[in-house]
């Protein structure tokens, strides 16, 4: 199976435990089982099974959906599954964009950046 992601070796390093996350959401939403969770998350039941067996990682889309239905913040959801990685992006990056002079702007990586003139 080429599309499968096997996470066992790395997950031990990071204390990755998707079962804790899934069980917490089931408990918070007062659901009976994984089938009920898959219906609440609007995903196929095999997705939950693959996550539990660590053949599929919990992706950003699924985390957002978990946030929407449970009200638990994304940061807390990541903690529940053992994701303790630091942020990779610097969100405090500021760009000086001048929209009044579009001729002096250039697009870099989809962002308009003012050129020095």
Summarize the structure.
This protein is mainly alpha-helical and 117 residues long.
What does this protein look like?
This protein has 117 residues and is mostly helical. It contains 6 helices and 2 strands. Helix 2 packs across helix 6. The longest helix has 11 residues. It is globular. The N terminus is likely disordered.
- Strand tally is 2
| Euclidean distance between termini CA atoms | 54 Å
Based on helices, strands and strand pairing, what is the structural class?
mainly alpha
Integer-rounded radius of gyration: 20 Å
Helix proportion: 40-55%
Integer average pLDDT? 76
The proportion of residues in beta strands is: 5-15%
Shape field: globular
Task: Give the SSE layout.
Layout: H1 8-14, H2 18-28, H3 34-41, H4 45-52, H5 60-70, H6 74-80, E1 105-108, E2 111-114
Antiparallel strand pairs: 1-2
Entry keywords:
mainly alpha; two-stranded antiparallel ribbon; disordered N terminus
């Amino acid at each position: 199976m080429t599309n499968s992601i096997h996470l066992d070796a790395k997950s031990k390093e990071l204390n990755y435990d998707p079962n804790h996350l899934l069980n917490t959401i089931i408990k918070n939403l007062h659901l009976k089982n994984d089938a009920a969770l898959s219906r609440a998350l609007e995903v196929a039941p095999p997705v939950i099974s693959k996550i539990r067996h660590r053949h599929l990682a919990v992706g950003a889309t699924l985390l957002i959906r978990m946030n929407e239905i449970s009200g638990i913040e994304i940061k807390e959801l990541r903690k529940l599954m053992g994701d303790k990685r630091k942020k990779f992006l610097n969100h405090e990056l500021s760009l000086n964009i001048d929209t009044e002079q579009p001729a002096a702007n250039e697009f870099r990586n989809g962002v308009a950046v003012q050129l020095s003139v």
